[in-house]
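FW: tagging you since you asked about this chain on Friday. Here's the raw sequence from the shared folder, copied in full. Didn't touch anything.
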Amino acid sequence: MDGARSGVLLVGMAFVAVACDGPSRIAAPRETATASRAGAGHEIAEWKHGRIPLVLRDQCDPSTFNAAIGPNTCQATPTVGRRVVFTEFVAQLKQNHNVRGWFNNPGLELATPHSTIDAVNTGGEAHTFTLVAKYGGGIVPLLNSLGGTPDVAPECASMPPSEILAPGQTDHEVLPNKPGRYHYQCCIHPWMKTDVLIGNH
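HL: got it, structure written out here
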């Protein structure tokens, strides 16, 4: 078996393992917010009343992703305009170590201690929103290799299946009490990241 074919099979096995729906999670209502744009292309949002909406996005093309990886890897999402075919996804990841269209919005959050982020998966693939001490690789070896993140984040390696969000599910992530900068990433697509700055404000 050639390397490319075995790589696709590795991705397929990993995605099939994470594609199964876990317990349903109910999204909380969105709160009134103030938002602003920061430098370097980062979006910063400060949300009120202790609830912080965040979205996990992707642009997977169902027909090509499901053909290459396996059934139900990617679901059709009506909010996505341009869809990325699987071969383009692989090419972008290999060249750029990320894929445009796979990202957390916003990438930087301002929050108060012990508030809650409601991270909703609005994409067609499974994602996670996982607190890590340091950004690293995820649970799909081929994506780590193509994305230049060979060292798996320990929190991803020990992540329980309940962390995985199927399309439409929401993770209600209670933030730490201690002020500081905290890192959250997708343990499937590790270039999907959000830094949360917790202050005393």
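FW: The first helix runs from residue 3 to 19.
HL: agreed, and The chain has five helices and ten strands.
FW: great, closing this out.
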